[in-house]
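It is worth pausing here to work through a concrete case rather than discussing structure prediction in the abstract. The textbook approach is simple: state the sequence, then state the predicted structure, then interpret. We follow exactly that order.
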Amino acid sequence: MANLKNRYDFVYIFDVQDGNPNGDPDAGNLPRIDAETGMGLVTDVCLKRKVRNYVQVAKNCSEGYDIFIKEKAVLDSLVNNTYDYSEVRNASKEDKKKVAKNLLCQNYYDIRAFGAVIATKDKNDQVRGPIQMTFSRTVEPIIANEHSITRMAVTKEEDLEKERTMGRKATVPYGLYVCHGFVSANLANQTGFSEEDLKLFWDALINMFDIDRSAARGLMSAQKLIVFKHDSELGNAPAHKLFDLVNVGKTSEGVARSFKDYSVSICKEQLPNGVSVEELI
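Step two, the predicted structure:
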């Protein structure tokens, strides 16, 4: 696999219509909102979960593409299994953790990409991943609507004559979210994250909502993926300067209810030397 030789920074824009993109368990699972500005939020952890789910489906946990953080995974067991490899058993005491860390990176895509904290007793370690993402934030303030819902069926036979069960469902009528991300070539070379792995990551951002549909999340869609590629491993310009070149503006009056109510433009004429830009969506 080809080593990563370039730093990347990217802007990922997605939207939600009549859904809850990321519920807050501390607020009755209502959509996350910045209390001071009213802007909607989606955590980086939420998006990474969807990337993991996409890779798990796309690669079917094939060799080198298993997922470390997945449903019902027992992390201590996965780490212990790695320490049972002959490469680790035959390594010196000083090198065991290093060899085990390399094997974990080779076997698990999400460790190669996002890193991991290994908290297993006597085998604790940390892997710094090359890909980091910010919280996603809406372009405009959002309002979370709560809807009453009913269930026709009952759980127990003795409840057959009772009234229908009532519930609540929270949705965002519409929200356009902007996320910023970073790919470090230096850290990629430490974990073995390759050009092929990076292409899989871009594919995940483009397609992950289509394999992760849920009644609770409504219509979520990837709308823009803007990638800045540096000519060097360390980069040729500060990330925030590149992000400032992307402008998201309102094109219609009144309340936005679709992506058509916004425009996205890039000031390509102001690109610094040594940086190119590509729109993957």
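Step three, interpretation. The first helix runs from residue 44 to 59. The longest strand covers residues 165-183.
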